[in-house]
Amino acid sequence: MTLTINVKKFNNMFSKYSEQKFDILNKYKVFYTKEEIEDVVNSSDEVKKKNEFFVAKKNNIKVLYKIEGGKKKIITFYPVK
């Protein structure tokens, strides 16, 4: 199921865990920038809704986020094949 969201531009914010996730992945030689993660959320190839969460996918990156107070709050992200 693909979900299309027609809303005004959201501001993104990162959860405490998602901020730590950059360092966690760096230990395994996986490097992403905040801009890359925000790009997945803002212009993904595919978005699926699971309960209150959205999963966006683009360029072999998945990002789990939810909409909170008019902003997209990034919960976590991870590489996919």
Key terms:
single chain; 81 residues; alpha+beta; YaeB-like fold; five-stranded mixed β-sheet; 5 strands
Work out the strand percent.
35-45%
Flag low-confidence runs: none
Class of secondary structure makeup: alpha+beta
Count up the helices. Answer: 2
- CATH architecture group name: 2-Layer Sandwich
**What characteristic shape results from the CA principal axes?**
globular
The helix-strand sequence is: EHHEEEE
First and last CA, distance: 19 Å
How big is the Rg?
12 Å
Detail the topology: elements first, then pairings:
Elements: E1 11-14, H1 16-26, H2 34-42, E2 46-50, E3 53-58, E4 61-68, E5 71-79
Parallel strand pairs: 1-5
Antiparallel strand pairs: 2-3, 3-4, 4-5
Structure commentary:
By secondary structure, the protein is of the alpha+beta class. The chain has a single domain (11-79), classed as YaeB-like fold (2-Layer Sandwich). It contains 2 helices and 5 strands, in the order βααββββ. It has helices at 16-26, 34-42, and strands at 11-14, 46-50, 53-58, 61-68, 71-79. The protein has a 5-stranded mixed β-sheet with strand order 1-5-4-3-2. A hairpin with a 2-residue loop joins β3 and β4 (61-68). The chain is globular.
Quick overview of this protein structure:
This protein has helices at 16-26, 34-42; strands at residues 11-14, 46-50, 53-58, 61-68, 71-79. The protein is α+β, with helices and mostly antiparallel strands and 81 residues long. The chain has a single domain, classed as YaeB-like fold (2-Layer Sandwich), CATH 3.30.2310.
